[in-house]
Amino acid sequence: MKNVLQIAYLIAALGGGVSQALAGSHGERPVGAAVFARSCIACHGIDGAGAMPGIPDLTDQKGALSKSDKVLLKSIVNGIDSGSSPTPMPAKGGDETLTEAEARLVLDYIRREFGN
Ligand code: HEC
Question: Among candidates 5, 6, 30, which has minimal Cα distance to 17?
């Protein structure tokens, strides 16, 4: 329920931007924010701090985002089970349709939004 509210909030906050982003400029290449809203927000939350226990806080500057792009892209595409969370992260966030390009876009987005 909370996640539904968060998604509703995100759509309200970003207004038309999201639907535009989802459609992409020519119906392709959705931007990172839209990828995040589609495939990541349920677990990582609108603020990146984690929507439930066991999800790492992406806003922690000494946390996951201190890793290199190469490592994080691998985690996003292949999933990661570091043992430090009670649950693993599923490959592509569980979204089979996630492309490598979208993984890069969403990584840029989370660095911009949650990193400093
Ligand atoms: C089903 C819940 C879930 C979804 C959906 C999900 N994640 Fe995660 N994510 C996790 C968990 C749990 C971890 C920590 C796993 C661990 O450390 O073992 C994690 C870790 C991460 C990390 C840190 C990786 C590292 O190397 O430390 C990044 C970055 C990340 N997720 C990005 C994303 C992105 C981007 C998406 C959307 C494409 C996404 N996640 C979707 C649960 C999820």
Answer: 30
Pocket of ligand 1 (CB under 6 A): 39-40, 42-44, 54-56, 64, 67, 71-72, 75-76, 80-82, 84-85, 87-90, 93-94, 98, 106, 110
pLDDT tens readout for residues 69-102: 999 999 999 999 999 888 999 999 999 999 999 9
Q: Ligand 1 center to residue 93 CA distance, Å? A: 7
Q: Are 32 and 105 in contact (CB under 8 A)?
A: yes
What gap in Å lies between CA 84 and CA 63, rounded to an integer? Answer: 12
